[in-house]
Design a protein that fits this description.
Layout: H1 2-5, H2 8-30, H3 32-66, H4 72-89, H5 93-103, H6 105-122, H7 125-132, E1 136-140, E2 161-165
Antiparallel strand pairs: 1-2
Helix pairs in contact: 2-3, 3-4, 4-5, 4-6, 6-7
Length: 170
């Protein structure tokens, strides 16, 4: 984790340079005043959406907690929405475009899945079950695929092959 943090200043510097380069290109294409107005309008939209996404995330979290359901899906969806609104609020054309993409439902679902998988890898399986609910397993009938090494679990029962399936997806 700490090894990746040493690249944060370099990444921020590259992001600022990319934002400036894109602003110069857009400014030459549509004019400096128009480009500045677009950046200002996108940032203002981001500030408005930041409040809306924050309230939406909080309501989703409370509703799932009151219903006794795992809040992980609402939390990850809220985090992706907040990140999108925050990127819109940060002055810049590239960050605004990325933020806008994170608010589009299909891209948001993909990002939410990525955030959920990353969270599941970093926490214990028990905590992941509490956050995201129980996992469903799809079992295939038939001969299992040969494995190069013997199974590590000793069981008198028969081994079955399966895969993890998201709830609600087939």
């Amino acid at each position: 984790m700490r090894r990746g943090l040493r690249y944060v200043p370099l990444g921020l510097l590259l992001a600022v340079l990319l934002e400036l380069a894109v602003f110069v290109v857009v400014g030459r294409a549509i004019g400096f005043g128009s480009a500045l107005l677009v950046v200002f309008a996108v940032s203002l939209l981001g500030l408005v959406l930041l409040r809306r996404e924050g309230m939406r995330a909080w309501r989703g979290f409370r509703a799932s907690a009151e219903a006794g359901q795992p809040p992980g899906r609402q939390v990850t969806d809220g985090l992706v929405g907040l990140l999108g609104a925050l990127l819109l609020a940060v002055p810049g054309l590239v960050s605004g475009l990325v933020g806008l993409l994170l608010l589009v439902p299909p891209v948001r679902r993909l990002a939410r899945g990525g955030v959920q998988r990353a969270a599941e890898r970093r926490v214990s399986s028990m905590l992941a079950g509490d956050l995201f609910g129980p996992r469903r397993v799809r079992v295939r009938r038939g001969a299992p695929h040969p494995t190069p090494e013997p199974p590590t679990v000793i069981d008198a029962g028969r081994a079955i092959e399966g895969e993890i399936v998201e709830p609600g997806r087939n």
